[in-house]
Amino acid sequence: MKKTSLMLLGLITVSGLVGCKKDFNHDPSTEDEKALYTYGALLAQRVNPQQLQLTEGEMQSLVQGLWDNYKGNKERVALADYRMKVQEVLEGRFKKAIEANKDKGANFIETFLKEEGAVKTESGLAYKIIKAGEGAKPSAEDVVKVHYTGTLIDGTVFDSSRESGKELEIPLNRVIKGWTEGLQLIGPGGQIKLVIPSDLGYGAAGAGTIPPESTLVFDVELIEVVKAEPAAKKPSKKK
């Protein structure tokens, strides 16, 4: 079995344990337990078992397999007969989940474009300018200072400079394509809502708690444009 499939199985199983309230109700008390609890919670955020559309029986089977192995109980299934089946099932479920993400994202964008002022560019980026701002708009080579909130289409916040209270300052050519294109549409003091399809975001790889092929929603305020410094000229050689 591929290493990635083994890792995915481990992540999903731990996530199942974290989300299973029927048989597990343990409050961590020691520092190590609290650290391991945090590890499990972070894994659950990264790999969402709900995306695999597991039935209750399937989720319980996942948890039971880990529990029986941990306790040294008799195996309820001939593991050798199903090792190869694991990869087939996981890859099939993830493929369906990814396709579902793309479809949901496309439907979300279609609905968003019905809002007054919403526009879609040739690249597929959808946006709505809340406030145009004043002054020169940034170029892709400029550094921008922004405040932003990023959510999934279900409203789940995955990142926010506003929550951290710290502005982000970053070159526009070092962010996802949807940001590079979208932030060039407003001036300093402007605000824009970006709805970014997966191919202009993190694509099939996803990122952190962002599932693969996710459409992303960003509310971005452009605070300042820091013009890129021109490259230093090399001294000419004397003849």
Quick recap:
With 239 residues, the protein is α+β, with helices and mostly antiparallel strands. The chain has helices spanning 3-19, 31-46, 56-71, 79-112, 161-164, 177-182; strands at 119-120, 126-131, 143-152, 157-160, 168-171, 191-196, 216-226. Helix content is 39%, strand content 18%.
Observed structural traits:
239 residues; Chitinase A, domain 3; 2 domains; 6 helices; elongated
- Return Rg in Å: 23 Å
Give the name of the CATH architecture of the largest domain.
Roll
Structural class computed from helices and strand pairing: alpha+beta
Number of helices: 6
The gross shape turns out to be: elongated
Order of helices and strands: HHHHEEEEHEHEE
Residue fraction in strands: 15-25%
The amount of helix comes to: 25-40%
Distance between the termini: 66 Å
Q: Return the CATH topology of the largest domain.
A: Chitinase A, domain 3
- Main sheet overview: 7 strands, antiparallel
> How many structural domains does the protein architecture include?
2
CATH class of the largest domain: Alpha Beta
Mean pLDDT: 83
Low-confidence stretches: 1-9, 11-22
Total number of beta strands? 7
